[in-house]
């Protein structure tokens, strides 16, 4: 890492991981530029010493580029970009509307893409090691009834992040995708979770209905502590604390439930490949 003061730009810093990563970085004496759709939502971060800016990640790219330039001009460099904006769209695929589908991809995927595009010229120009962190989820690994669109966005983020890592490694930029399990944030609160406007009764007695009820029961009862999780993230991205001496990984399986969930998907996939290998691989020209 370079000896210059780390400068963080964080999207969706009004709550959840965005907020607590900002607080953790500030507690270490780092500079933080926190963004949200309204600065009134991040006034508490301003009181802790963060610079605050308005940013809606679904804005047109030229508008995001203006924010990126102003952020870089503030301290002359950006060392850490955190794309934390995202939400869950709950509903069966048949239930969610095309507009709802687009809106969730627009925030969860296109938002992260455009913010990265806007900031990359400045991050590439920054000396030393830099990082870009994109938020995936354990839902990056396995689809599920009642939240298929959310899974789709998080699969996309993980795939894009892996690709960006290979593309940006020559510039000293480490890209990682953070894949948390269930953490006790406001993510599932009524004001944050988006439910499909259409609700088809036929799904009520299926797994979709069970998931709807499960999300309600899980809200505010998740096992993960977002403050502890954010400390681990900052440790990893700065090679400090518990992560001292370690490289920044391609993905961060965050939370006690994340590695077992991922391992389960790997095991199911390996079993599937073994079962069908003799049939599905006999397809080459002879």
Describe this structure in words.
The protein is α/β, with parallel strands linked by helices. It has a single domain, classed as NAD(P)-binding Rossmann-like Domain (Rossmann fold), CATH 3.40.50. It has eight helices and nine strands. α3 runs parallel beside α4 (98-125) and α4 (98-125) runs parallel beside α5. The N and C termini lie far apart (53 Å).
Q: Tell me about the biggest sheet?
A: 7 strands, parallel
Oligomer status:
single chain
Helix content: 40-55%
- Inertia-based shape: globular
- According to DSSP, the number of beta strands is 9
Amino-to-carboxy terminus distance? 53 Å
Number of helices: 8
Structural class, judged by helices and strands? alpha/beta
CATH class: Alpha Beta
List segments where confidence is low: pLDDT < 50 over at least 5 consecutive residues.
none
Q: List the helices and strands in order.
A: EHEHEHEEHEHEEHHEH
Protein name: NAD(P)-binding protein
InterPro entries: DHB_DH, NAD(P)-bd_dom_sf, Sc_DH/Rdtase_CS, SDR_fam, SDR_oxidoreductase
GO molecular function, one term: 2,3-dihydro-2,3-dihydroxybenzoate dehydrogenase activity
Keywords: NADP, Oxidoreductase
């Amino acid at each position: 890492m370079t000896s210059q003061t780390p400068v963080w730009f964080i999207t969706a810093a009004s709550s959840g991981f965005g907020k607590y990563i900002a607080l953790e970085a500030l507690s270490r004496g780092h500079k933080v530029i926190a963004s949200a759709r309204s600065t009134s939502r991040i006034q508490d971060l301003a009181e802790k010493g963060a610079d605050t800016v308005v940013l809606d990640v679904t804005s047109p790219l030229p508008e995001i580029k203006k924010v990126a330039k102003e952020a870089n001009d503030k301290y002359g460099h950006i060392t850490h970009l955190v794309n934390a904006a995202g939400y869950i769209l709950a509903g069966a695929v048949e239930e969610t509307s095309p507009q709802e589908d687009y809106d969730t991809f627009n925030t969860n995927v296109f938002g992260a893409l455009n913010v990265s595009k806007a900031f990359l010229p400045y991050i590439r120009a920054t000396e030393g090691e830099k990082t870009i962190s994109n938020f995936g989820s354990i839902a990056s690994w396995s689809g599920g009834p009642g939240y298929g669109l959310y899974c789709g966005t998080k699969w996309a983020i993980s795939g894009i992040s892996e690709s960006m890592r290979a593309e940006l490694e020559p510039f000293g930029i480490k890209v990682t995708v953070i894949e948390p399990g269930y953490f006790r944030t406001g993510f599932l609160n009524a004001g944050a979770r988006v439910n499909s406007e259409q609700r088809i009764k036929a799904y009520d007695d299926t797994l979709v209905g069970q998931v709807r009820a499960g999300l309600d029961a899980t809200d505010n009862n998740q096992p993960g502590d977002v403050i502890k999780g954010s400390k681990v993230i900052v440790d990893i991205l700065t090679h400090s604390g518990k992560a001292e001496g370690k490289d920044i990984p391609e993905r961060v399986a965050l939370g006690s439930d994340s590695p077992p969930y991922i391992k389960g998907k790997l095991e199911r996939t390996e079993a599937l490949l073994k079962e069908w290998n003799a049939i599905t691989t006999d397809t080459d020209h002879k």
